[in-house]
Automatic annotation (TrEMBL):
Family of the protein in this entry: Belongs to the glycosyl hydrolase 100 family.
Superkingdom: Eukaryota
Ranges that cross the membrane: none
Lineage of producing organism: Eukaryota, Viridiplantae, Streptophyta, Embryophyta, Tracheophyta
InterPro entries in alphabetical order: 6-hairpin_glycosidase_sf, 6hp_glycosidase-like_sf, Glyco_hydro_100
Protein name per UniProt: Alkaline/neutral invertase
Keyword Hydrolase annotated: yes
Cited function: Invertase that cleaves sucrose into glucose and fructose.
Reaction catalysis annotation: Hydrolysis of terminal non-reducing beta-D-fructofuranoside residues in beta-D-fructofuranosides
Organism: Rubus argutus
Residue ranges of the region described as Disordered: 1-37, 43-62, 68-151
One Pfam family, short name: Glyco_hydro_100
Comp. bias (Basic and acidic residues): 1-17, 75-90
Keywords attached to this entry: Carbohydrate metabolism, Glycosidase, Hydrolase
Length: 647
């Protein structure tokens, strides 16, 4: 009987660790950074020929790019090839069934050689850049070392890159099935491109020839995000469509937005847009939907956040800092953030939202302070801190952002977190407490805890619950909010580890036969009738109500890599590969385990395709994580509040 994969990987790592490291070439250049500010460097787009391997510490989230590395010396490359051949023969003896895959490895592609060289190198340096001219933006370094001990596989500030980090995350050649799926996915993704006056500006939501188009023939802001990442992570990168998308959606932001004689805020970005041909003027025009045509007529709160995060990913990938410095781009970011930071009656730093304002765009009881919006809000604030210029009113806005980040991180980590211990505490809560020393601050009734939570919560693990507001806690699990919290470092390192432990412990519930559950558990019976209003699309274990969405693979994969669990991501990807292409790349799956194609799911859903591609590229090249990950900001201090520690 062949050995388990886990044992084989462990033996392989031990064998590699016993060998002497490959020689490392001399560094071409090393950039120095201050702890307070990191000067923005004007660099040419990534080039394989222009980057060298040398000593490295992650002093700035913007100061380095591990995506493109120059080949190591010929001697090191020959040694690496010999070592890989030796490993291949060992694995063939241990697992005969892997022979075909290992034989493909011996030829090696350029992408894999870069990943292997990265794994063998003991240290890495920033890309060689020119000194920026006077007056350019200075991007703050938000990536501080967390106070807690670094988790295995997590890249921390001021921590030299351990070659074991990338060695453990390295994945061998694609299987024949995976290779064919990747080729098909890229082909279908290209066909979904939408062109405006000859330039690509986005992708269609779906290309199902057997279903009515409805609004699936439009470019959705949130749907395009994984497509944008796929184009940026591709080797070589294809950033043109991402840049055009960012500029066109920004242009639409400036239009007057009126729904039933009511004018929306100036900073609102559209949920979607489409290209129409104006026969009278004989030219193409862009038509945007700001929520006036959406189910429930709700404006998308998340569009602006996805836009800011994608702008940061684009800038980090291409080093095209000029785009973020454009006056109209700076103004667009400020308009989005001013909408969220305006004064009101709020006593919490979280953002108050209506139902249906995010990916869950129908009535599902997420009104109030949903975790998905709070995590995206936090992520966008931190990205904006890096890109906003301090000139004019920028300095005041940066100060407001800094204060909000501090308060928001404390609030989410303190009041949204649920593990076995906290669940037991809430179960024992006293009610009707008065004064600032109250433990049960939101006056949550212990009797409101649903029965399923007690069985769902493992002894090891935890998660950020769906919503917290006066006398209300939504204990449902929402994947997007939890994974975004990990990527943005809104969740502490210990919380991030616990979230992944919960996913692994409840694999059958949250992953099942097709990744991944957008929410758990499903609303049923009376609860479904009262919360969804008898919604026929959100019946139990369908669509947003416990449906399984393949596009979420990229989020799970990114969270797994950041927490040092590439094997978990690979397991989920392989599970999706068994059916996703054969089923026609559906939008979502139904059933408690995700066994059935969704009853109203569109086929050839674009973000199902791009989500799979991003997941594959991150597993094959873990340095792609740097485009969508932020490390913990040590400057975020916990407020000193006096609270009772007893019940």
């Amino acid at each position: 009987m062949s050995k388990p994969l886990k044992e084989l990987l462990k033996e392989e790592r031990e064998a590699e660790a016993s060998r002497p490291p490959a020689p490392v070439p001399e560094p071409a250049a090393t950039a120095k950074f201050t702890e307070k500010d990191v000067s923005l460097e004007l660099c040419s787009p990534r080039s394989e020929k222009s980057m060298q391997v040398s000593d490295f510490t992650a002093d700035s989230d913007w100061s380095f790019d591990l995506q493109r590395l120059a080949p190591v010396s010929e001697e090191a490359e020959k040694k690496t090839t010999a070592e890989k051949d030796s490993d291949s023969s060992k694995n063939e003896a241990a697992i005969p069934s892997v022979k075909s895959t290992e034989s493909e490895e011996s030829s090696g592609t350029s992408e894999k050689s870069e990943s292997d060289e990265l794994a063998k190198s003991a240290s890495i340096s920033p890309e060689k850049c020119e000194t920026p001219p006077t007056g350019k933006v200075k991007l703050r370094s938000n990536d501080e070392t967390p106070e807690s001990v670094a988790m295995p596989g997590v890249l921390m500030k001021n921590q030299s890159v351990d070659p074991d980090f990338f060695k453990d995350l390295d994945v061998k050649e694609l299987s024949p099935v995976g290779t064919a799926m990747v080729e098909e996915a890229w082909e279908r993704l290209k066909k979904s491109f939408v062109y405006y006056r000859g330039k690509p500006v986005g992708t269609l939501a779906a290309m199902d020839p057997m279903a009515e188009a409805l609004n699936y023939n439009q470019v959705f802001v949130r749907d395009f995000f994984p497509t944008g990442l796929a184009c940026l992570m591709k080797d070589p990168a294809e950033p043109e469509i991402v840049k055009n998308f960012l500029l066109k959606t920004l242009h639409l932001q400036g239009r007057e937005k009126t729904i039933d004689n009511f004018t929306l805020g100036e900073g609102v970005l559209p949920a979607s847009f489409k290209v129409l041909y104006d026969s009278h003027r004989a030219k193409e025009t862009l038509v945007a939907d700001f929520g006036g045509s959406a189910i429930g007529r709700v404006a998308p709160v998340d569009s602006g956040f996805w836009w800011i995060i994608l702008l940061r990913s684009y800038t980090k990938c291409t080093h095209d800092y000029a785009l973020a410095e454009l006056p109209e781009v700076q103004k667009g970011m400020k308009l989005i953030l001013n909408l969220c930071l305006s004064d009101g009656f709020d006593t919490f730093p979280t953002l108050l939202c209506a139902d249906g304002c995010s990916m869950i765009d129908r009535r599902m009881g997420i009104y109030g302070y949903p975790i998905e919006i709070q995590a995206l809000f936090y992520f966008a604030l931190r990205c904006a801190m890096q890109m906003l210029k301090p000139e004019r009113d920028g300095k005041e806005l940066l100060e407001r952002i800094d204060k909000r980040i501090t308060a928001l991180s404390f609030h989410i980590q303190k009041y949204y977190w649920l593990d076995f211990t906290q669940l037991n505490n809430i179960y024992r809560y006293k009610t009707e407490e008065y004064s600032h020393t109250a433990v049960n601050k939101f006056n949550v009734m212990p009797e409101s805890i649903p029965d399923w939570v007690f069985d769902f919560m493992p002894l090891r693990g935890g998660y950020l619950i769906g919503n917290v507001s006066p006398a209300r806690m939504d204990f449902r699990w929402f994947l997007v909010g939890n994974c975004i919290a990990i990527l943005s470092s809104l969740a502490t390192p210990a919380q991030a580890t616990a979230i992944m432990e919960l996913i692994e412990a409840r694999w059958e519930d949250l992953i099942g036969e097709m990744p991944l559950k957008i929410a758990y558990p499903a609303l049923e019976g009376h609860e479904w009738r009262t919360i969804t209003g008898f919604d026929p699309k959100n019946t139990r274990w369908s669509y947003h109500n416990g449906g399984s969405w393949p596009t979420l693979l990229w989020l799970l994969t990114a969270a797994c890599i950041k927490t040092g669990r590439p094997g978990t991501a690979k397991k989920a990807i392989e599970l999706a590969e068994t059916r996703l292409s054969k089923d026609g790349w559906p939008e979502y799956y139904d059933g408690k385990t995700g066994r059935y194609i969704g009853k109203q799911a569109r086929k050839y859903q674009t973000w199902s395709i791009s989500g799979y591609l991003v997941a594959k590229m991150m597993v094959e090249n873990p340095s792609n994580l740097l485009l969508i990950s932020l490390e913990k900001d040590k400057k975020i201090a916990k407020p000193r509040l006096t609270r009772s520690t007893s019940m």
